[in-house]
Write a structure and sequence with these properties.
heterodimer, A: 122 residues, mainly beta, 4-stranded antiparallel beta sheet, globular, B: mainly beta, 6-stranded mixed beta sheet, 9 strands
Chain lengths: 122, 110
């Protein structure tokens, strides 16, 4: 069964750090680029970051550039998001997502995790 | 990286058709045939409904269709059913390995 499972969310104070994980199973993780997408309470989806299948290139939304770092360990089939200098506006459900079944190179995120909640509050 | 523009709400009666628009720019929607649509039910993960503007993943009813004209993409749901009531989001590749989502549209089945 193809699936992604996020973990690591929680409550953190402004300025703090948190590392999210996304464990993949049921597919060849090392063959696919993968994204982080978030949804703030009552708000829409926002693309956060993308990493290529081999970790060679990483891309970020302007809103998180310089504060968040996406990485992956293909030996552990796991994606990470290191979040530093957190702000209240980073409060959101964070999803990992990828395109496996439709295997679309530039869209079509057909596999999503269930999400992990991050709350930035004092 | 401005969000794509979607109407906040749309509605229709069972059996009717409804179309949701998604307006971007020539740097995203208008520049690439990489527009996707996602269905979100509360508390559940997003579900891919349309990708590459018009393609439908296996298992998605053919009542769902996508199109694009210029900088505006559209999702049409024909033969509305109660279970179609959800939030719908468009997204587009925006070049340089960046992506952008729309603000979302709440579809109500009357």
């Amino acid at each position: 069964q193809v699936q992604l499972v996020e973990s690591g969310g929680g409550v953190v104070q402004p300025g703090g750090s948190l590392r999210l994980s996304c464990a993949a199973s049921g597919f060849t993780f090392s063959s696919y680029g993968i994204h982080w997408v978030r949804q703030a309470p009552g708000k829409g989806l926002e693309w956060v970051a993308f990493i290529r299948h081999d970790g060679s290139n990483k891309y970020y939304a302007d809103s998180v550039k310089g504060r968040f770092t996406i990485s992956r360990d293909n030996s552990k089939n796991t994606l990470y998001l290191q979040m530093n200098s957190l702000k209240a506006e980073d409060t959101a459900v964070y999803y990992c997502a990828t395109s496996v079944v439709v295997a679309a190179p530039f869209d079509g995120f057909d596999i999503w995790g269930q999400g992990t909640m991050v709350t930035v509050s004092s | 990286q401005s969000a794509l523009t979607q109407p906040p709400s749309a509605s229709g009666s069972p059996g009717q058709s409804v179309t949701i628009s998604c307006t971007g720019t020539s740097s995203d929607v208008g520049g690439y045939n990489y527009v996707s649509w996602y269905q979100l039910h509360p508390g559940k993960a997003p579900k891919l409904m349309i990708y590459e503007v018009t393609k439908r993943p296996s298992g998605v009813p053919d009542r769902f269709s996508g199109s694009k004209s210029g900088n505006t993409a559209s999702l049409t749901v024909s033969g509305l059913q109660a279970e179609d009531e959800a939030d719908y989001y468009c997204s587009s590749y925006a070049g340089g390995d960046n992506w952008v989502f729309g603000g979302g549209t709440k579809l109500t089945v009357l």
